[in-house]
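Lab notebook, bench 4. Still working through the backlog of constructs that have no structural model yet. Next entry is a single chain of 200 residues. Request: give me the structure tokens for it.
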Amino acid sequence: MRKLVLVLLLIIGCQNLAAQGENVPVVKKVKPWQLGVEGGLDLSRFKASKELYSPDNQIGWFVGLKIKTRIPMPNLGLDAAILYHQNKIDYVVGSTDYRKKKMHMFVVPVNLRYDWKIDSNFNLYIATGPQWNWLLDKSRISDVGELDHSFFDWNIGMGFEILKHVQFGFNYNIPLGKMGEVNNVNLEGHTWNIRTAYYF
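Model written out:
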């Protein structure tokens, strides 16, 4: 009888241990970084201290690779991209000869970001950081000026991410210094853009 009680107690104990093991939450491994692709459209307005070309807004586009990583602080991370960017400016030679100049560039934004997790499949973010721009084609603008081979902007952006893979955002690029000169007048570009990224 004593042996039977011991066997029953042993069985009950094993069952309790198994039940507790089933209730232990499974910790999912979170990737420390994600690689993806990004593209979008931008709306630029080029400014100078006097009218040297059309001030109309110009629409450009960009596409390239993007990476996102976490840093060891709550809700903080970094993202960076290598993008091919194309835009154009209008300018005038003399008084009536209006021309267009296409700009082909490599653009590298690096942003510090803060994420608010709403639920497992949706979060909001804000981001800010510097952006390096390298001109790929001729820098000369006919006989009236020249673009710098490289120049800098500062990004301020916000957006949202769904299903842990798809991201939509809005950015404003603030010029840090000039992007070139036209008739000895500094040229600056202020840009709004919409962008989307997919992380693998």
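Notes after review: The chain has one domain: 30-199. The helical segments are 2-23. Flag for follow-up if needed.
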